[in-house]
Amino acid sequence: MEKIRVIVYGLGTIGSSIAKSILKNEYLELIGVIDNDKEKLNKDIGELIGVNKLGISVSDESILSNKADIVLHSTSSSLNEIKNQLIKIIESGSNVISTCEELSFPINDNIKIAKELDELAKKYNVTIIGSGVNPGFVLDSLIIFLTTGCQEVTEIKASRIVDISKRRIQLQRKVGIGLTIDEFNRLLKDKKIGHVGLKESAAMIASIFGINGKNKERIKPIIKDNKVIGIKQSVKIKKFISLSLQMYVGAKQKDIILIKGNPSINLVIKDGIQGDTATTAIVLNLIPKIVNYKEKGLISMKDLIPHYKF
Is this structure's pTM higher than 0.85? Predict the structure, then answer.
């Protein structure tokens, strides 16, 4: 079997984990890594990810001319920030899996960008998808798949509880660990705090039911000794979909999904699904599906799985 040629774009915590996992996979060939950090440029990839030297150096976007079968992209949560990166990847003729949360199911102002990317991907005959553990799995595609077992669905409630002290520093900063209440509120007002992707997850679920209701999101700090130790974030669409994400220091981790209907489904995942490890797994497990996917353009996880009234 010919190996799938892979480029990793972004060598942060998740990108490094993805690169390491590629090296362990006999069906994948890592042909290059791109990173915009000048301090990483031209350094051996192996040294940066904590393995032996590989003889492959971190490059800039010029390496896209090598035309990988797929590029695994992990740089930012903002679709607007990564738009030009994705355009260059698509124009190189490579398929894309990105961990950008806003790409998982673009809504609001991102719909215009999504349309542009979709049209471009179809022009260059490639497939692009945004995925990860959340959004991309626990609070959307897993729920959507579970609805396959229902003849009727009347309400969906799900929550994810995460001990933020066990997660990467970038995520800890996103939820405001160590901030005062005033600092948290200022960042919240400027939309610089909180998890990205919960609204996208709710919209993805709503789409299979034909629901276009307003996506109401609330973010509150969790306080201990006058310092922020995490957040509680929730989204509701009408009285049909309720998603909750709690990330705070010392939380007892678990994932809970309740689908009311006929039959009802109540799933509890003890200790929860480890986010960074699962994100790497999801990205790698998607590779053969995306490389061989017949439909070109921008797709979402809901396009890959059976669901209610498929």
Answer: yes
